[in-house]
Amino acid sequence: MSKKEKVLDAILSQGMLPLFFYEDAEVSLEIIRTMYNAGVRVIEYTNRGIEALSNLYSIKQRVSVDMPGLYLGIGTIKTGLEAEAFVDAGADFIVSPIIDSEVALVANNYDLLYIPGCMTPTEIHVAQQYNTRLIKIFPANILGPAFISSIRELFPGQLFIPTGGVELEAANIAEWFRAGVCAVGMGSKLISRNVLDNRLYSQLYNDTLKALELVQLSK
């Protein structure tokens, strides 16, 4: 099984893709370690600051030793140059807020899972031209579960993951899965700035357990 297939299987099994960025590499590592200890095996680290590249590189060195079986991808990738740099730093998969042919080409060249962001049926159609198994619906808080319900029959077999605004609440998560998603992206509603700035690792551990449980109940 290729890494692309293994990462996709991990996302589908987990039913949730946690995502975050923080300027401090050591805090970022502890956030990842906390979620790993709670049972998470696939995480998206986002390219939201100048430290992202060096942080990912150093974190991956530790993850490979301390956290076996964890896939760590990079998000917010918008150019082929960014994709190349983060793949060189060890990214296991690539997530974008948009569709970009150069990013898709880099992912394909390295046989990595590419998850582009889409907001319209036309964008979904374009993304499918790059054989994208999993498409990110973004921003999910604007589109809502009804969007998935409305378009999923137009794209039979396509896997969707909403990101942006998914709440850490049973009703909200269940509504997304009823609409037809295969997993949910969990960003600031799980890993808030307060958790990051104040190193609230125990709170994050408990919230991660709750999120994983809610997802499994909703799938």
Automatic annotation (TrEMBL):
Pfam families: Aldolase (PF01081)
Annotated metabolic or biological route of this protein: Carbohydrate acid metabolism
InterPro entries linked: Aldlse_KDPG_KHG, Aldolase_TIM
Keyword list, A-Z: Carbohydrate metabolism, Lyase
Gene3D superfamilies: Aldolase class I (3.20.20.70)
Oligomeric form and interacting partners: Homotrimer.
Entry's family note: Belongs to the KHG/KDPG aldolase family.
The name this protein goes by in its record: Bifunctional 4-hydroxy-2-oxoglutarate aldolase/2-dehydro-3-deoxy-phosphogluconate aldolase
Organism of derivation: Mucilaginibacter lutimaris
